[in-house]
Structure formats: structure tokens, C-alpha cells
Amino acid sequence: MGHKQSPILNDNKLKLGFFSPNCSSGMAVTKVEERWVNSWDNNIELAKLGDEAGIEFILPIARWIGYGGETDFHGSVLETVTWATGLLAHTKNINVFATVHTAFIHPVVAAKQLATADQLSHGRLGLNIVAGWNKPEYDAFGIDLPEAHSDRYELAQEWFEVVQKIWDHDGPFDWKGKFYNLKGIYGYPRPYDGKPPIMNAAGSQEGRQFATRNADFLFCISVDPDQSKQEVIDIHDQATAQGRNTGAFTLTHVVCRPNKKEAEEYLDHYANQNADWEAVDNLMELQGMHAQSFPAEALQMFRGRFAAGHGTYPLVGDPDTIAKELARFTEAGFAGCTLSFVDYAKEFPYFRDEVLPRLEKMGLRQPFNG
Ligand SMILES: Cc1cc2nc3c(=O)[nH]c(=O)nc-3n(C[C@H](O)[C@H](O)[C@H](O)COP(=O)(O)O)c2cc1C
Questions:
Q1: At residue 302, does pLDDT exceed 90?
Q2: Which of 60, 56, 105, 96 is nearest to 80 (CA)?
Q3: Distance, CA 34 to ligand 1 centroid (Å)?
Q4: Secondary structure of the chain: what % helix, strand, coil (to 5)?
């Protein structure tokens, strides 16, 4: 792995990142007026807040078609490579990830786009590789979604090998594979300082094999931190068996308020009374049909969690409760997690002022000194 300066590789036991601010409504499938507006200005504001507070990373979602409902959840999405490039130019410390669908973006184009973003940020880009699952998007691109996961990941593997060879190889080369037939290709400049950190978020066995073979981090849904302990061990074992190290990350949504009652009332307000249930059901149906990122029990039991935060783990309560809940993820073996808020930029400062100092006292994070 290159990029020794990447914040996501720092010594903090619990690394934190924002997830999905490039998408309309972020992670909350809600109709409330204050739901996240994914404007460029809002994204810059949030990125700067995170940058100055020592948040390690920002992770976007690459989405081409929304989920419908009254709000058309994720109907407006800033494209992630251009989004990441812009945010990297506006920040100093934070890792910004780009998310690339291997079936939609040619590897020669991706290799150069990613190297460009990494150059301008002096090595702060990260890459999320998505092998694909969302059939309406494949239809929109005029491409058949391969039924078998093995076929999806076979393409992803060749795609990533092409990208890496462009980054590593001296001078032009030819590539003759199953999916790509390239002649005299090369790509300069390379990424700034070795390979950017690579993440993947597969749940299927084929995907986990791909992730532990290629990625530095695997993101997985946790129904409950205690229940995830074995899964984290399995990820580490699978990586070790291939002579690699793959860290496990998980995902949360946050409602942090001075007391439990206030937090729970707001959760009920945005994710129950005012949920966009039609979009919730569309989202859950598509996830259940084509992806294996969510355990079956999560899909059945947690319709409310999908409304509140796209099926992620709820951190709802006062700052003490939330800090303790976060510590449970570290105990379960996770290296970090994502955070999302209904209005990220408005709500994050309270989390920063109240939860981050508690995590520092607990030894999970070091104070950030710029
Ligand atoms: C943290 C995280 C980020 C993801 N980002 C995207 C994304 O940006 N675009 C997308 O189409 N799928 C995204 N996914 C879905 C997964 O990358 C993957 O395609 C999905 O889990 C299906 O793979 P599987 O069937 O092999 O489990 C994400 C999932 C997680 C947990």
C-alpha cells in the first residue's frame, strides 16, 4: 500500500468519515424540509468542517438513477470523481474517496481521472470500487447486469488489474483479456505517491474474496456491534490467507442531542412521521433483489433503519451514549465507521464539540492538531 500520509491510515483506533453528502437527502429517506441538500456549497462547507476537525475521510455514493418516492431519494447526485477532485482542492488534510462502477467507466479513463485527482491533492484521494448490482442503472446504461456474482467480480478484477498496470508499468503495453483488448496504452502522470487507499463494500462471498484480495478496507453493515465480531474476524482471516491486510469499517447514522428524549423525538419526526416510505420500499426492494450487502434479517427487521439512515446502525441519544456506542464498534474489531446526519453541516458541529472530546478521553482518537 502506498500513501503513507493518508489520514485513513493514521493511528486513531476509531477512524471517522462522512458518507453520502454528494447525494440528495444523504442517507435519510425523509420528506422533512431540512433534509440534506447536496449542493456544491453545502458539500464544501461540510468537507471543510471535517477537514478542520480531523475527520479522516469523506465517502460519496455513485448513483445514476434515484429511488423514486415523493422525494426521488438520490435523484440528484454529484458525480463522484469530479466531486472528489473539487473537494480535494478545497481541503488540506482529509481523504476524499471517489467511487467508480467498473462496468460503466472504462479503466483507461478511470486510471487517468484518479491519478489527476491524486496529483492535485498530493495523495489524498481514495478509491471505492463497485462491481455493480443496481439493475435500473444497468438498464439506463444499456448494459446487462450479469446474473452471477462471479461474472460481476471477474470484470471488476480485470478492470482493477488494468488500472494498476497503467499506474505501475513503464511505457506503453498491450492488454489482451476477457473484457479489455488494449494496444499501446500507458498513462502518466501516476498517482502522487503509490496507490491510493482502496475500499470495497461487498457482502457476497465473491465480493468479499475480491475485497480481501484487492482492497485495504472493507465496509460492511452491522446490525449490532456484538453480532459483527465474528464477521470482522472472518474478514481479517480471509485477507491474511491471501497475505494481505484488509481493515473492516462499518456505517452509522447519527441523531445526537443533549438528551435521549429529544434525540428520539427527532428520529420519530424525520424517520417515521415524515419518512418517504415509497422510496424506502423501493430502496429495500432493489437492495434485496440484486445485492447481498445487507444481511437478510436487516432487510426484514429494519424498515425504520432504512428510513433513518439507509439501513445503517443508529447512533441516537445524548453524547455520552453515542460515544459509548462508538466504542462498541472498536471492541468488535472495526477500524472505523461512517457518520451521516439529516443536515450534516448543521448537526456535525455539536457532534464535534461533544462526542469527539469524549472519544479522545476514551483513548479512541487523538486530539487533532491540523
Ligand atoms: C459503504 C458502502 C458504500 C457503497 N457505495 C456504493 C456506491 O457508491 N454505488 C453503488 O452502486 N453501490 C454502493 N455500495 C454497494 C456495494 O458496493 C456493493 O455493490 C453491494 O454491496 C453489492 O455487492 P454484493 O452483491 O457483492 O454484496 C456501497 C455499499 C456500502 C456498504
A1: no
A2: 60
A3: 26
A4: 45, 15, 40
The predicted model gives 201-226 an average pLDDT of 96
Q: Whose CA is nearest to atom 18 of ligand 1?
A: 202
The alpha carbons of the chain give a radius of gyration, in whole angstroms, of: 20
Which residues sit with their C-beta closer than 6 Å to ligand 1?
A: 61-62, 99, 128, 130-131, 133-134, 149, 201-204, 207, 219, 221, 251, 291-293
pLDDT at site 298: 65
pTM of the model: 0.96
CA distance 347 to 342: 8
CA of 368 to the centre of ligand 1 (A): 30
Does 334 have pLDDT greater than 50? Answer: yes
Burial 269-281 (b: 16+ CB within 10 A, else e): ebbeebbbbbbbb
CA atoms within 13 A on the CB side of 197: 27
What residue ranges define each of the domains in the chain, with the CATH number in brackets? 7-359 (3.20.20.30)
Residues 236-270: pLDDT tens digits? 999 999 999 999 999 999 999 999 999 999 999 99
Cα 71 → chain centroid = 22
Mean of the per-residue pLDDT values of the chain: 95
Dist. CA 99 → ligand 1 center (Å): 10
The terminus-to-terminus CA distance of the chain in angstroms comes to: 24
Q: For residue 102, what is its C-alpha cell? A: 467498473
Contact in structure between 24 and 310 (CB atoms under 8 Å): no
Which residue, chain included where needed, has cell 472519544? 359
φ and ψ of 234, to 5 deg: -60, -40
